[in-house]
Amino acid sequence: MPAHRLRWLLCFGAWLLALGVSAADTVPCGDGLTLRVSSPSPVQGSLVLVEVQSAAPLAQLTGEWAGQTLHFWRDANPSTYRALLGVDLERAPGPAPLTFQAELASGERRACRLRATVEDGKFAVEQLRLPPRFVELSPADLERSQREAARLREVFAAVTPERLWQGGFRRPLEAEAAGNFGRRRILNDQPRASHSGEDYSAPAGTPVYAAQRGRVALADELFFSGKTVVLDHGLGLFTFYAHLQSITVEPGQVVEAGALLGRVGSTGRVTAAHLHWAARLNQARVNPRDLVALLPD
Ligand SMILES: [Zn+2]
After folding, report:
1. What are phi and psi of 249, to 5 degrees?
2. Among the four residues 38, 43, 104, 172, which has the most C-beta atoms within 10 Å?
3. Which tens digits make up the pLDDT trace of 168-182?
4. How would DSSP label each residue in 222-272?
Protein backbone atom coordinates (compact mmCIF):
# COMPACT_ATOMS: atom_id res chain seq x y z
CA MET A 1 0.00 0.00 0.00
CA PRO A 2 1.40 3.47 -0.85
CA ALA A 3 2.56 5.46 2.19
CA HIS A 4 0.14 8.33 1.59
CA ARG A 5 -2.80 5.92 1.52
CA LEU A 6 -1.70 4.29 4.79
CA ARG A 7 -1.35 7.72 6.38
CA TRP A 8 -4.84 8.61 5.23
CA LEU A 9 -6.29 5.38 6.66
CA LEU A 10 -4.55 5.93 10.01
CA CYS A 11 -5.81 9.49 10.08
CA PHE A 12 -9.35 8.34 9.24
CA GLY A 13 -9.15 5.71 12.00
CA ALA A 14 -8.04 8.32 14.56
CA TRP A 15 -10.89 10.57 13.50
CA LEU A 16 -13.43 7.74 13.98
CA LEU A 17 -11.96 7.05 17.41
CA ALA A 18 -12.30 10.73 18.34
CA LEU A 19 -15.88 10.72 17.12
CA GLY A 20 -16.61 7.64 19.24
CA VAL A 21 -15.22 9.33 22.34
CA SER A 22 -17.11 12.58 21.89
CA ALA A 23 -20.48 10.83 21.49
CA ALA A 24 -19.90 7.94 23.90
CA ASP A 25 -23.34 6.68 24.74
CA THR A 26 -21.92 3.12 24.83
CA VAL A 27 -18.90 1.89 26.79
CA PRO A 28 -17.49 -1.67 26.55
CA CYS A 29 -16.63 -2.89 30.05
CA GLY A 30 -14.96 -6.19 29.06
CA ASP A 31 -16.12 -9.80 29.53
CA GLY A 32 -19.18 -9.29 27.33
CA LEU A 33 -20.39 -6.42 29.50
CA THR A 34 -21.60 -3.19 27.84
CA LEU A 35 -22.91 0.02 29.38
CA ARG A 36 -25.24 2.26 27.37
CA VAL A 37 -27.13 5.48 28.17
CA SER A 38 -29.94 7.18 26.23
CA SER A 39 -27.90 10.40 26.35
CA PRO A 40 -24.33 11.08 27.53
CA SER A 41 -25.14 14.82 27.75
CA PRO A 42 -28.55 15.07 29.48
CA VAL A 43 -30.11 18.49 30.04
CA GLN A 44 -31.18 19.74 33.47
CA GLY A 45 -34.51 18.17 34.50
CA SER A 46 -34.23 15.15 32.18
CA LEU A 47 -34.36 11.41 32.66
CA VAL A 48 -31.69 9.08 31.30
CA LEU A 49 -32.28 5.40 30.55
CA VAL A 50 -29.25 3.32 31.52
CA GLU A 51 -28.80 -0.19 30.09
CA VAL A 52 -26.22 -2.76 31.05
CA GLN A 53 -25.93 -5.72 28.67
CA SER A 54 -24.24 -8.83 29.93
CA ALA A 55 -23.56 -12.01 27.97
CA ALA A 56 -23.34 -13.96 31.25
CA PRO A 57 -25.72 -13.65 34.22
CA LEU A 58 -24.58 -11.20 36.89
CA ALA A 59 -24.49 -12.03 40.59
CA GLN A 60 -24.67 -8.35 41.48
CA LEU A 61 -24.87 -4.96 39.78
CA THR A 62 -24.61 -1.56 41.45
CA GLY A 63 -24.41 1.89 39.93
CA GLU A 64 -24.08 5.45 41.10
CA TRP A 65 -24.40 8.90 39.59
CA ALA A 66 -23.90 12.17 41.50
CA GLY A 67 -24.64 10.51 44.85
CA GLN A 68 -27.76 8.75 43.47
CA THR A 69 -27.94 4.97 43.76
CA LEU A 70 -29.34 3.45 40.57
CA HIS A 71 -32.10 0.87 40.98
CA PHE A 72 -31.88 -1.79 38.26
CA TRP A 73 -34.66 -3.94 36.90
CA ARG A 74 -34.92 -6.62 34.20
CA ASP A 75 -37.61 -6.94 31.53
CA ALA A 76 -38.28 -9.95 29.33
CA ASN A 77 -34.68 -9.98 28.06
CA PRO A 78 -32.64 -11.56 30.91
CA SER A 79 -29.30 -10.20 29.58
CA THR A 80 -30.40 -6.52 29.85
CA TYR A 81 -30.41 -4.64 33.13
CA ARG A 82 -32.08 -1.22 33.04
CA ALA A 83 -32.23 1.75 35.40
CA LEU A 84 -33.41 5.34 35.25
CA LEU A 85 -31.27 8.27 36.29
CA GLY A 86 -32.80 11.65 37.14
CA VAL A 87 -31.04 14.98 36.60
CA ASP A 88 -32.62 17.54 38.93
CA LEU A 89 -33.81 20.63 37.05
CA GLU A 90 -31.51 22.86 39.12
CA ARG A 91 -28.42 20.65 39.04
CA ALA A 92 -25.44 22.74 37.91
CA PRO A 93 -24.30 21.98 34.33
CA GLY A 94 -20.96 20.19 34.03
CA PRO A 95 -19.36 16.73 34.06
CA ALA A 96 -20.64 13.98 36.38
CA PRO A 97 -19.38 10.42 35.78
CA LEU A 98 -21.59 7.36 35.95
CA THR A 99 -19.92 4.45 37.75
CA PHE A 100 -20.77 0.74 37.87
CA GLN A 101 -19.62 -2.35 39.65
CA ALA A 102 -20.69 -5.77 38.44
CA GLU A 103 -19.99 -9.14 39.96
CA LEU A 104 -20.00 -12.01 37.49
CA ALA A 105 -21.40 -15.41 38.44
CA SER A 106 -17.75 -16.62 38.60
CA GLY A 107 -17.14 -14.16 41.45
CA GLU A 108 -14.99 -11.88 39.28
CA ARG A 109 -15.66 -8.15 39.61
CA ARG A 110 -15.76 -5.52 36.88
CA ALA A 111 -15.88 -1.74 37.31
CA CYS A 112 -16.93 0.60 34.53
CA ARG A 113 -17.23 4.35 34.12
CA LEU A 114 -19.01 6.57 31.61
CA ARG A 115 -18.52 10.30 31.17
CA ALA A 116 -21.81 12.17 31.40
CA THR A 117 -22.09 15.94 31.16
CA VAL A 118 -25.15 17.85 32.32
CA GLU A 119 -26.20 20.55 29.84
CA ASP A 120 -28.06 23.77 30.57
CA GLY A 121 -31.85 23.29 30.27
CA LYS A 122 -32.19 26.83 28.82
CA PHE A 123 -35.52 27.26 30.60
CA ALA A 124 -37.66 30.35 29.98
CA VAL A 125 -37.52 33.09 32.62
CA GLU A 126 -40.72 34.95 33.37
CA GLN A 127 -40.70 38.34 35.14
CA LEU A 128 -43.95 39.22 36.92
CA ARG A 129 -45.11 42.21 38.98
CA LEU A 130 -48.10 41.76 41.26
CA PRO A 131 -49.48 43.75 44.20
CA PRO A 132 -47.85 42.34 47.41
CA ARG A 133 -51.22 41.15 48.76
CA PHE A 134 -51.32 38.55 45.93
CA VAL A 135 -47.77 37.38 46.61
CA GLU A 136 -47.28 37.31 50.37
CA LEU A 137 -48.76 34.48 52.41
CA SER A 138 -50.43 34.94 55.78
CA PRO A 139 -48.49 33.39 58.71
CA ALA A 140 -51.08 30.58 58.87
CA ASP A 141 -50.80 29.82 55.12
CA LEU A 142 -47.01 30.00 55.28
CA GLU A 143 -46.94 27.54 58.18
CA ARG A 144 -49.34 25.19 56.37
CA SER A 145 -47.39 25.28 53.08
CA GLN A 146 -44.10 24.58 54.88
CA ARG A 147 -45.62 21.65 56.75
CA GLU A 148 -46.98 20.23 53.49
CA ALA A 149 -43.63 20.70 51.69
CA ALA A 150 -41.95 18.68 54.47
CA ARG A 151 -44.61 15.97 54.11
CA LEU A 152 -44.02 15.77 50.34
CA ARG A 153 -40.25 15.55 50.85
CA GLU A 154 -40.88 12.58 53.15
CA VAL A 155 -43.14 10.90 50.57
CA PHE A 156 -40.53 11.31 47.77
CA ALA A 157 -37.67 10.12 50.00
CA ALA A 158 -39.24 6.69 50.65
CA VAL A 159 -37.93 4.16 48.11
CA THR A 160 -40.09 1.09 47.47
CA PRO A 161 -37.46 -1.56 46.62
CA GLU A 162 -39.57 -3.39 44.02
CA ARG A 163 -40.71 -2.08 40.63
CA LEU A 164 -44.49 -1.58 40.68
CA TRP A 165 -44.87 -0.35 37.08
CA GLN A 166 -45.19 -2.82 34.21
CA GLY A 167 -44.62 -1.73 30.63
CA GLY A 168 -44.65 1.79 29.24
CA PHE A 169 -45.84 5.15 30.56
CA ARG A 170 -48.62 7.25 29.03
CA ARG A 171 -49.68 10.87 29.46
CA PRO A 172 -52.49 11.12 32.01
CA LEU A 173 -55.11 12.97 29.93
CA GLU A 174 -56.17 13.94 26.42
CA ALA A 175 -54.59 17.40 26.17
CA GLU A 176 -51.46 19.11 24.88
CA ALA A 177 -48.57 19.94 27.20
CA ALA A 178 -47.84 23.65 27.67
CA GLY A 179 -44.06 23.00 27.47
CA ASN A 180 -43.48 25.03 30.63
CA PHE A 181 -41.48 22.49 32.64
CA GLY A 182 -38.49 24.17 34.34
CA ARG A 183 -39.68 27.75 33.75
CA ARG A 184 -38.04 30.17 36.22
CA ARG A 185 -40.35 32.81 37.65
CA ILE A 186 -39.20 36.10 39.16
CA LEU A 187 -41.99 37.70 41.15
CA ASN A 188 -41.50 41.35 42.16
CA ASP A 189 -37.72 40.91 41.66
CA GLN A 190 -37.62 37.79 43.89
CA PRO A 191 -36.76 34.41 42.29
CA ARG A 192 -39.43 31.80 43.05
CA ALA A 193 -39.29 28.01 42.90
CA SER A 194 -38.81 26.65 39.36
CA HIS A 195 -41.89 25.12 37.72
CA SER A 196 -41.24 21.45 38.41
CA GLY A 197 -43.98 19.95 36.22
CA GLU A 198 -45.82 20.24 32.92
CA ASP A 199 -49.20 21.98 32.67
CA TYR A 200 -52.04 20.60 30.54
CA SER A 201 -54.99 22.96 29.94
CA ALA A 202 -58.26 21.05 29.86
CA PRO A 203 -61.88 21.74 30.79
CA ALA A 204 -62.80 21.11 34.43
CA GLY A 205 -64.08 17.56 34.78
CA THR A 206 -61.71 16.01 32.18
CA PRO A 207 -60.69 12.55 33.47
CA VAL A 208 -57.10 12.12 34.72
CA TYR A 209 -55.60 8.62 34.50
CA ALA A 210 -52.62 6.89 36.13
CA ALA A 211 -49.54 7.16 33.87
CA GLN A 212 -48.59 3.64 35.00
CA ARG A 213 -49.26 1.13 37.75
CA GLY A 214 -48.39 2.33 41.26
CA ARG A 215 -49.38 2.71 44.89
CA VAL A 216 -51.22 5.87 45.99
CA ALA A 217 -48.65 7.52 48.28
CA LEU A 218 -50.77 10.64 48.86
CA ALA A 219 -54.35 11.68 48.05
CA ASP A 220 -55.15 14.94 49.80
CA GLU A 221 -55.87 18.65 49.44
CA LEU A 222 -52.70 20.78 49.74
CA PHE A 223 -52.31 24.56 49.90
CA PHE A 224 -50.38 25.15 46.65
CA SER A 225 -51.30 22.12 44.55
CA GLY A 226 -54.93 21.75 45.69
CA LYS A 227 -56.43 18.26 45.42
CA THR A 228 -53.34 16.16 44.73
CA VAL A 229 -52.53 12.51 44.01
CA VAL A 230 -49.00 11.10 44.22
CA LEU A 231 -48.31 7.62 42.79
CA ASP A 232 -45.30 5.60 43.95
CA HIS A 233 -44.17 3.42 41.02
CA GLY A 234 -41.33 1.80 43.00
CA LEU A 235 -37.52 2.07 42.64
CA GLY A 236 -37.63 5.75 43.74
CA LEU A 237 -39.98 6.88 40.93
CA PHE A 238 -43.13 8.97 41.63
CA THR A 239 -45.71 10.83 39.50
CA PHE A 240 -47.69 13.79 40.84
CA TYR A 241 -51.14 15.06 39.69
CA ALA A 242 -52.30 18.46 40.99
CA HIS A 243 -55.22 20.97 41.04
CA LEU A 244 -57.82 18.19 40.67
CA GLN A 245 -61.53 18.96 41.07
CA SER A 246 -62.10 15.54 42.62
CA ILE A 247 -60.04 12.51 43.67
CA THR A 248 -61.30 8.96 43.11
CA VAL A 249 -58.52 6.95 44.81
CA GLU A 250 -57.51 6.27 48.42
CA PRO A 251 -54.05 6.39 50.03
CA GLY A 252 -52.37 2.95 50.02
CA GLN A 253 -54.46 1.66 47.11
CA VAL A 254 -52.58 0.02 44.21
CA VAL A 255 -53.90 1.34 40.88
CA GLU A 256 -53.30 -0.12 37.42
CA ALA A 257 -51.98 1.86 34.43
CA GLY A 258 -54.82 3.95 33.02
CA ALA A 259 -56.96 3.81 36.21
CA LEU A 260 -59.06 6.91 36.88
CA LEU A 261 -57.38 9.05 39.57
CA GLY A 262 -59.71 12.05 39.51
CA ARG A 263 -60.81 14.96 37.31
CA VAL A 264 -59.19 18.18 36.13
CA GLY A 265 -59.99 21.20 38.29
CA SER A 266 -58.60 24.49 39.59
CA THR A 267 -58.05 23.72 43.28
CA GLY A 268 -55.00 25.22 45.05
CA ARG A 269 -53.18 28.40 44.02
CA VAL A 270 -54.27 28.59 40.36
CA THR A 271 -56.47 30.80 38.21
CA ALA A 272 -57.73 28.35 35.56
CA ALA A 273 -58.53 24.64 35.25
CA HIS A 274 -55.52 22.55 34.26
CA LEU A 275 -53.54 19.47 35.27
CA HIS A 276 -50.06 20.00 36.68
CA TRP A 277 -48.23 16.71 36.05
CA ALA A 278 -44.81 16.15 37.61
CA ALA A 279 -42.32 13.34 38.26
CA ARG A 280 -39.61 12.65 40.82
CA LEU A 281 -36.85 10.10 40.61
CA ASN A 282 -34.61 9.64 43.66
CA GLN A 283 -35.93 13.09 44.67
CA ALA A 284 -34.70 14.74 41.44
CA ARG A 285 -37.35 16.93 39.79
CA VAL A 286 -37.59 15.64 36.22
CA ASN A 287 -39.82 16.25 33.20
CA PRO A 288 -42.66 13.67 33.34
CA ARG A 289 -42.85 13.66 29.51
CA ASP A 290 -39.43 11.94 29.49
CA LEU A 291 -41.10 8.85 31.03
CA VAL A 292 -43.39 8.58 28.00
CA ALA A 293 -40.49 9.21 25.60
CA LEU A 294 -38.02 6.75 27.19
CA LEU A 295 -40.45 4.02 28.26
CA PRO A 296 -43.28 4.26 25.70
CA ASP A 297 -46.53 2.35 26.08
ZN1 LIG B 1 -47.96 23.76 36.89
Report:
1. -125, 165
2. 172
3. 999 999 999 999 999
4. ETTTEEEEEEEEETTEEEEEEEEEEE---TT-EE-TT-EEEEEB--SS-SS
Q: How far is CA 258 from CA 166, 170, 243, in A?
A: 12, 8, 19
Kindly tell me if the per-residue pLDDT of 133 is higher than 80: no
Is residue 27 domain-shared with residue 95, that is, in the same domain? yes
Which pairing describes strands 125-128 and 184-187: parallel, antiparallel, or unpaired?
Answer: parallel
> What is the CA(99)–ligand 1 centre distance, in A?
34
What's the gap in Å between 241 CA and the centre of ligand 1?
A: 10
Q: How far is the CA of 195 from the centre of ligand 1 (A)?
A: 6
* Domain, as residue range, for 44: 3-118
CATH of residue 36: 2.60.40.1930
Q: Where residue 76 falls among pLDDT bands split at 50, 70, 90?
A: confident
Distance (Å) from CA 251 to ligand 1 centroid:
23
Give the model confidence (pLDDT) of 182-213 as tens digits.
999 898 888 888 999 999 999 999 999 999 99
The one-letter amino acid code at 7 reads R
Task: Identify residue 97 by its one-letter amino acid code.
Answer: P
Are 56 and 180 in the same domain?
A: no
Neighbours of ion ligand 1 (CB under 5 A): 197, 199, 276
Mean pLDDT, rounded, of the chain: 90
Alpha-carbon span 218 to 115, nearest angstrom: 37
Average pLDDT over residues 110-120: 93
Q: How far is the CA of 8 from the centre of ligand 1 (A)?
A: 56
Query: How many angstroms separate the alpha carbon of residue 197 from the centre of ligand 1?
Result: 6
| Residue 228 contacts residue 244 (beta carbons within 8 Å) | yes
What's the gap in Å between 200 CA and the centre of ligand 1?
A: 8
Residues 162 and 281 in one domain: yes
What does the CA dihedral 23, 27, 28, 32 come to, rounded to 10 degrees? -120
